[in-house]
Amino acid sequence: MKRLMMALAFASLMACETKPKQEESSAKSEGLTPVELATVHYKNMMKVLDDGEFPRSFEDGDFTTSSSEWWCSGFYPGTLLYLYESNGDTILLNEADRMLALLEKEQFNTGTHDLGFMMFCSFGNANRLDPTPAYKEILVHSAQSLASRFSPEVGCIRSWDSGSDDYIVIIDNMMNLELLFWATQETGDSTYYDIAVTHANTTMNNHFRADNSSYHVLNYAPDGSGVQEKKTAQGLSDESAWARGQAWGLYGFTVMFRSTGDSVYLAQANKIAQFVMNHPNLPEDKVPVWDFDAAPDAPRDASAAAILASGLLELDSYVPDQGYSELANAMLTSLSTNYLADLGTNGNFLIEHCVGHLPANSEVDVPLTYADYYYIEGLMRAEKGRR
Ligand code: GLY
Question: Are 256 and 265 in contact (CB under 8 A)?
Answer without folding.
Answer: yes
